[in-house]
Structure formats: structure tokens, C-alpha cells
Amino acid sequence: MSTPVSKRLVIACGGTGGHLFPGIAVAEAWTARGGEVLLLISEKQIDALATEGYDHLRFERMPAIAMPGLISVKMPGFVLTFVKALWDCRRLYKSFRPDAVLGMGGFTSTAPLVAANMRGLPTFIHESNSVPGRANKLNAKFSNAVLLGFERCAKFFGEAKAVEVVGTPLRPSVVKKPTREEAAAFFGLDPAKKTVMVMGGSQGARRINELVAGALPELVAGGIQVLHISGPADYEAVKPAHDSCPEAGVLKDFCSNMQFALAAADLAVCRSGASSLTELAYYELPSILIPYPFAADDHQTTNALIFSEPGAAELWKQSELNEKNFAQKLLGLSLDDDRLSEMRAKMKELAIPDASEKVCNRVAAEIPS
């Protein structure tokens, strides 16, 4: 098998943390083997935030928008943006001279893959979710192989040249686990108290943030502390609830040190994006998954089922939750040590810690020596 030594890889991974963090993970693994990487990201704020601290990697911003319907008035704008992105990719490839191109999903990956096809390069996509989005269904047509996070997704790529389950790469910062004491100290939490970690910073997580804010008094009364990562958009909306209940724990608008958040927690509450699930499994963290109800093809529910069916997590439908029953259910599970222990063991069984290496091996195997 060929190795990445002196080989150049382009990774298109912008648009969401679910694409970007696994892309960075592969980039770190590739460069650790002696290869070179160019990461193509979008112009969104999330990409700017998520790439902080990775100055040793090269990032280039690419214009990208989701493809509208064929008769949409937005189609001309999409075409113009795509043409510009394609032109930018061809220019970058001329100077970087990649040996292969990997798309991590989304329409940010489409132009880089098409440009790679025009140069006759090996191309790959990674689909982390259990149901592929429109972009990756399209991107698969320009790829030599489709790499998957979940086996359940394979049926959607029956016509692909090659399909392989590799797991979803873990971002490098979370691989080394802090101790619980180190993690609690990082946030100023009490390591002796049960801790619920809430990841409300994902797209469309406002309702989770509202429910958690309303549950704070009851959680405090039950001896539970909360590490609430609200996301910048909802921070000011939930801050008054935390201000009126200061003993509840810690509120953060954004957390760039998720390894400490994951290590500090006894239970997580979050949406069910694939990257988040991968990290929860790696940390063996029992979880309450509340799928985003408007996700394309309801893929977050399918993701959540992969974890709830074997008992590693509980799937709570947003439509069935209100301020009263959410607080009661959350407190009840937080204090159920036997149930949490069972969930932790099942989470461990679902972890795939070497996904980055598997992706690198698969890509390297297609590059001529």
C-alpha cells in the first residue's frame, strides 16, 4: 500500500462543523505521515471559528451555496458561484499539484471534486451521516470511492464504484482525554457533582437551549450542575436564566476545547449530528439525543436510532418536550446511576477511534507510487 509521504491531498470540508472537524482530523493524520494538505473551507463564520488554533494547516476559503431547485430563481446565482469556485480550484490545483482530493460533504465539496476529475485525480467523498444529503448524492458521481461513517448509509450509494465503512474521523483536539478533575477545573465546575453537558450550539438548536434554560431551577434543586454551550446566536437569550440561577453551572457561547466539556460530563444533551455522536461514543458519554426535526430527510433521527436502539442513548422527540416534562425527565435520568452505567458501556461498543487512519489508508491506496 502506498503511503502519504510527500503526497499532496486536498480536503474540501467547509460549511458546517460536521464537515470541517473530520476534515481537519484527516489532515492531521495525513501530515503526520509526511504528506501535505490543503483544506478548502467556506466563507461562513463557523469555519473561521472552528479553524482557530490550526495555524500549522493551510486553509483556503471557497465560495459555496446550496444547490436550489432547477426552476428556482436562485439557480443563476448558484451557477455563477459554482463556476467561480471551479475556477478557483483549478487555479489552486495548478500551484499545489494535488495527488488526490477528498470531499467531506456539502456543496463546498462539489467544485473541488469536479476540478479534480478534470485533472484525472483520484477522488473520494466521506459521508458521516446515516442518510446522505443532496450534495453527497451528487458528489458521489465525481468520486472513485465513497467512505462512510455508518453502515446504514451504504444502501444509498449502490451505484458508486466502491463503498467502505470507515467511521467518522475525530478532530485531533478531542483524542487525548483529560481527567474528570482537569476538565472540571477548566470550567470551574465541582468534580463531585453530577454534570449535564448541553451542546446547544449546533444549527437549529434554539429549542434545546430554551428547554435547558427553563429546567435550571429543578436541576439545581436535584444537585445537578450544567455546562451549557448555547452557541453565539442564543447566548443572550438564555443568559438571564443563568444569571438568575448562578449555582446552576457554566454558560458558554462557544467552546473550542470540547475535550474538557466531554470529559467533565456524566450525561450529554444535544442534537444528533454524526460528528457529535462520534465524539460522544469515543468519550463513552451517555446521551439524550433530540434530533433536529427539520433536518434533510430527517437524517438526524436515523443517526439517533443507531445509538438509541442498542441503548447507548435516549432519543427524545422535540415535539413531545415542554418545559415541565423535560426538566423531570432530565433530572430522573441524571440521577439513575444504573441506567447511565449501561448507556456508557453501549457507547463504548459504538466507538471507532481510528477512522482518520482508515480514511488515509484508503486514499493513499489509490495514489500511484
What can you tell me about this protein's structure?
The longest helix is centred in the N-terminal third of the chain and has 22 residues, at 75-96. The chain folds into 2 domains: 8-170 and 353-366, Glycogen Phosphorylase B (Rossmann fold); 174-350, Glycogen Phosphorylase B (Rossmann fold, 3-Layer(aba) Sandwich), CATH 3.40.50. 49% of the residues are buried. Helix content is 43%, strand content 15%. The chain has helices at residues 17-32, 45-50, 75-96, 110-118, 134-139, 172-175, 180-187, 206-221, 235-243, 258-264, 274-282, 299-308, 323-334, 337-350, 355-366, and strands at 8-12, 36-41, 58-61, 100-103, 123-127, 145-148, 163-165, 194-199, 224-229, 249-252, 267-270, 287-289, 313-315. The model has no long low-confidence stretch (mean pLDDT 93). Helix 7 crosses helix 10, helix 8 packs parallel to helix 9 and helix 11 packs across helix 14 (337-350). It is built from 15 helices and 13 strands. Strands 3-2-1-4-5-6-7 form a 7-stranded parallel sheet, with helices on both faces. Strands 10-9-8-11-12-13 form a 6-stranded parallel sheet, with helices on both faces.
